[in-house]
Amino acid sequence: KQEVTQIPAALSVPEGENLVLNCSFTDSAIYNLQWFRQDPGKGLTSLLLIQSSQREQTSGRLNASLDKSSGRSTLYIAASQPGDSATYLCAVSRGVKTSGSRLTFGEGTQLTVNP
Amino acid sequence: GAGVSQTPSNKVTEKGKYVELRCDPISGHTALYWYRQSLGQGPEFLIYFQGTGAADDSGLPNDRFFAVRPEGSVSTLKIQRTERGDSAVYLCASSSNRGTEAFFGQGTRLTVV
User: Dihedral of the CA atoms A32, B109, B68, A47 (nearest 10)?
Assistant: First the structure.
């Protein structure tokens, strides 16, 4: 059974700092990995999708890397801003025919960026 | 539509009642997923539809939970004889095909009192 772990559970940083969120998964047979952002009381916003054949993806100040063999992904946020405060969730998909893009999620990292 | 739409956004019901939660996926998306998220946890998979059929319902916790997608678009999650432990946010997601990016709705917050 796939298990996804995110470290740290919570993180508080001053504005402008670069930071790294970590995600690990136990079964390396994944199809892709997605990072999401969730604001309080809201749904999930997709940030980055990395296919299993890729090593990283970038979008603006965000960079996500994937090391499938070691079961790890990191989300790097450059020059953090108060507006980045949210919970960040990592999820992996096995992608088999019967389960489509069924995602297994970590419990998230709650990020607070202080002005 | 422009995004995944879920209604209602909030639902309060009494223990033992029946509820229906609706999901309207992105137009043209053939894959639809339901997840349940408890406070402080990541979402947990409930059921996956490919078109009209439930391809994987292994995440449904018991037979009080049922979901349909009769025309391959809108889906309804049905919960019978609700219990206080069913209180959670129910999230719906859709994707254009197997293995592609999933887009989530805003969720329905269900509270069973």
Answer: -20
